[in-house]
Amino acid sequence: MGLQQAHLERLRRTYQARVEAMDAALKDCLSRHATWVRPDGGYFFWLRLNENINVQELRQRALERQVGFLAGNLFSSCSGMKTHIRLSFAYYKEGDIREGIARLKPLFD
Fold first, then answer.
1. Tens of pLDDT along 58-92?
2. Are 36 and 85 in contact (CB under 8 A)?
3. Residues with Cβ < 8 Å from 65, sequence gap 6 or more?
4. Distant-in-sequence, close-in-space partners of 93: CB < 8 Å, separation ≥ 6
5. What element of type H or E holds 27?
6. How big, in percent rounded to 5, are the helix, strand and coil portions of the chain?
7. Residue 55's CB: how many other CB atoms inside 10 A?
8. To 5 degrees, how large is the angle CA 73–CA 55–CA 46?
9. Other beta carbons less than 10 A from residue 100's beta carbon
10. What is the mean pLDDT of the chain?
11. Has residue 1 got a pLDDT over 80?
């Protein structure tokens, strides 16, 4: 196996572990408040929040807890996805992912 192939395999394992960590943390902390599909590719989880949650207000409160996400409407050309948020797992280690999701949980309760 060449260096490039070895590097790609290492990245696949790393990202797979991060996906698993985020999926597990979301199930533990936010399953009553959101739905999502575990991604098969890419670097993001897309969560659909319950209709009664104000995403813009939630984002501000999350930033106060040093947790960030992007509102789904930023990715819609027709002002859709107002109940969606995008969470990245690409940069963060598994422990940081679990901590970030845990910091979000009280914002929903």
1. 999 999 999 999 999 999 989 889 999 999 999 99
2. no
3. 103, 104, 107
4. 18
5. helix 3-30
6. 50, 15, 35
7. 20
8. 60
9. 22
10. 95
11. no
- Report the length, in residues, of the chain: 109
Question: Which amino acid is residue 39, in one-letter code?
Answer: P
The token duo for 101 is 């999701």
Q: For residue 44, give the nearest of 94, 91, 87, 108 by alpha carbon.
A: 87
Amino acid type, 63: L
Closest CA to 82 of 109, 64, 101, 57: 57
Q: Check whether 47 has a pLDDT greater than 80.
A: yes
Q: Which amino acid is at 25?
A: A
Two tokens, residue 2: 């060449």
